[in-house]
Amino acid sequence: MAIKKKSSNIQHSAETTPKQKVKLVDEWHNYGTHKKDFMTNTKLERTCERLIDWARDTPDAINIKEFVAKEGISEKTWNTWRDRYDYVQEAIRQAKMHIGLRREKWLIGLKHNSGALMHMQPFYDNDYREMLELRENLKQKRHDEDGGTKFIIMEKYPESDQVPKKKENNE
């Protein structure tokens, strides 16, 4: 007696989503390949995704310019795209967050030159920037409350036989 398989009457349905139209964003010179290249909206979005992945997954990623240079994009072109497209700005914010967290861990562990890292940390971490601004404001307030710069005037003491006279350079 043979076992007969039941045929499946399940019908699969897939929602159709409107395909994103590919639009030309810019024509640019790729310094990695030394060729003229075309940037589309989808290609730029993938570049932004790679930026976030790179910032999150690369242990020695400490500056977004390194990624931009690796991609062959000039700083001027990258800044144009950043100013023009919100999703590029958001990708940069996300990448900065990952890099800032890494730099902060380095500062805590003193793995690198803490002075150099602390100097740039406000660029990557808004909380750190706010803390420095607060410290600066408190310092300025204290300076203003103290009456500003103080000058101390010391009178010249008369010469004494107990103190030897200063030799002139002319001797």
Layout: helices, strands, pairs:
Layout (H helix, E strand, L loop, with lengths): L23 E7 L4 E6 H17 L6 H7 L4 H10 L1 H24 L4 H11 L1 H20 L26
Antiparallel strand pairs: 1-2
Helix pairs in contact: 1-4, 3-4, 4-5, 5-6
Describe the fold and architecture.
The chain is mainly α. The chain has one domain. The protein has helices spanning 41-57, 64-70, 75-84, 86-109, 114-124, 126-145, and strands at residues 24-30, 35-40. Strand 1 and strand 2 form a beta hairpin.
In short:
This protein is mainly α and 171 residues long.
Distinctive features:
single chain; 171 residues; mainly alpha; two-stranded antiparallel ribbon; 2 strands; 52% helix; elongated
Content-based structural category: mainly alpha
Radius of gyration in whole Å, from Cα? 32 Å
Number of helical regions: 6
Given the C-alpha coordinates, what overall shape results?
elongated
